[in-house]
Amino acid sequence: MDINEFKSNDGITWCPGCGDFGILTALKKALVILDRKPKDILLVSGIGQAAKLPHYIRCNCFNGLHGRALPVAAAAKIANRALTVIVTTGDGDCYGEGGNHLIHNIRRNVDMTVIVHNNQIYGLTKGQASPTTDLGYQTKVQAGGVILEPMHPLEMAIALGCGFVARSYSADSGHLSGMIVEGIKHKGFSLIDVLQPCVTFNKKNNYQWYGKRVYKIDSSSYNPGDKMAAYQKAQEWEEKIPLGIIYKQEKETYEEKSGLNQKKPLVEETVEGVDIHNVLAEFV
Amino acid sequence: MINEFTIRIAGEAGQGMQTIGELLCRVFKKSGLGIFSNQDYMSRVRGGNNFFQLRVSIKPVFTLREKADIIVALDQKSHGLHKAGLKDGGIIILDKKKFNISENDNTFFDAPLYETAINSGGSDIFINTVSCGIVTAITNMEFACLSQAIKDIFADKGADIIEKNIAAAKAGYDFANASYKKEKLKLNAPPLKSTLLMNGNQAIALGAIRAGCKFYSAYPMTPSTSIMDTVAHYAKEFNIVVEQAEDEIAAINMIIGASYAGARSMSATSGGGFALMVEGISLAAMTETPIVVVDAQRPAPATGFPTRTESADLDFLISAGHGEFARVVYAPGTIEEAFYLTIKAFNIAEKYQIPVLIMTDQHLADSERNIEPFDLDKVRAQRYIISKEDSRNITGYKRYQLTESGVSPRAIPSWIEDAIYADSDEHSEEGHIVEDGATRIKMVEKRLYKKMAGLVKEIEKPAAYNLEKADNVLLGFGSTYGVLKEACETLGESFGFAHLSQVWPFPSEEISLLFKDKKNIITVENNASGQLARLLMRETGIKVNNSILRFDGRPFNLDDLVKRIKG
Question: Disulfide: which of A58, A67, A229, B528 matches A98 by Cβ 3.0-4.6 Å?
């Protein structure tokens, strides 16, 4: 598979220098590594800068409502298992507006990969606090500084038993594409939280700020299968921020538990002439 | 000689009124009689006062009567609460000793329900089958019909349960035959031909299965839940995925996702849940993704009366969703229509790539009637996608290609080599985000004008009864069909009615023709503001003379409507 296969002709509308570019590059690389055809990939997104990403790759795309990418993605996968389903979402879209869907789709455990462009700020609405904005950060709306405790998505995902929880950094597209490859390979719901500098609205968590703090987890000494260790690792933030697979556990997927993968994909089922005579007989 | 009677069984939630209802429905149905039954229940699991009402007739019946010939009181409060609902000459079956009732009333038929239940079945839970035995005897039915009904209903409960229930029923039956001194309620008529017994929700579920629905997602909400129950019951057999969503927003987005991927998809809810789905309706319209959503209405605003009936979401459904786009709203009037229109809903949704809404209400959802077997050839499921075989030859695919009909050929992701872009933003023919006004205009015309022009040609014709002769015309939609029909039959030649089973696009042409020169037009509506009268005025300029409205959370019945029409 050649990377040009994924080239889209749609013009990119992100700010120059935006962290989203690194994610786009990493995702394309990952898809090349995985050797998936554009027709077999479905990118689902909601609203926000992250949600525009599917337009910049040539593959199937459903760009829906704010916060609602996950239910669309889960059901599309249920309907057609041939699709590799990836969600590109942001901290507002996934952790704010769509928080309930995140919780319950982790529980649902449909085989899909969720890439959260976490820039800790609202970009498209011009600079308000997001659920992950650091305490005290001032915005036009949060003029006295953010007073709400930031959400901790990785800790939450681990607590919910998410089978694949990782963090990466958009400036390191090599690392990120590796995480995406692992996330897609993992059977079940995979969450990849990507630190993504917003060059326009987040004056604190910029390339420099992240650059000083991020470090790669040493895979020779760290066991991502240890839930308590993972929980501790996920809490590292102010001084040092770990990148890599924080938690990983093989679990039965929705498709396996429901028996779906033993049956014909829903999309292949015939619609015409469904025989309901036996059912009607029960009402005689 | 009588032609019909009505039985009301009242008691606390948890006393098994539903079981009695189901048993008696089967007894009368097996005896070849016409039945119509409805439940009146409170929003609670135990206690309170619920009742089940069953009208039995020598011919098919379509609505309820106001008063009962037989009331079965299963608890102490019921005879007092329901006395006013007893017809002159009617009887109340009750257990005077158990309920500490000393008064004598010539309507009472005192029966030791509890003692008989314990002696025959071993527990007072059998009062419901004892009562069934008594009613079976008083209505002159064969005991064999009741014992067969018990075997059918408790089939999966085991031989012991069946045996005890039959013993309890027989004890009640024998007691009544020995002690009931008044004249029995006898219906004599040639039996009706073989029928199906079901309620509106079951008919919708069966329609969905027949239409090839493969994905159903919903959040449980009364009175829609039994659609999900029924689809789930048959899900394995028909390879349907039924997924209980975390909320109604998830439910509608899930059915949109499954439908985008190519599976026929559906959800059902009631008004409050539908309110949460509204943004999703707009999404389905914008992305041109076919979906079918049922709103089984209940009285609102907010939580309202969770277990009761109203049809006040008419205005809401025909305009639900921000922005302007084509949609269809069906309002089936009968259980049969609920079945056929559900199949049509899937076809129309897919043919025009739009959201199709089916509005019912608690009355239609829960009422059971014995109906003629479905004609499976009447409405057949048809697909409107690019088949897998044809997909091989597709190149340069544009999801939103501009066409004369406004409908773009719909390809299925992974079946064609090209990528398929669907977007909630305004988009180009390729599905990419645009900002220019010229494309915007073309896309609005596509989604609204062009699709509407096609949909108008597919309007479900209003039902019309005696409109040539009648001076007085009743008009209704949804679950009022049955009461309109029987009211007109009762009122005589000068009355006719029209019933709308599709309220959007509004059948303006058809109604204008039917109502030409009619002087006295009256809408009959289960809402407080006469929404249908307003819609009629808006769409046709026809002003009604009167609206008969009922908004106490209860359905119209034949006697009540006739009385109100006569004024």
Answer: A67
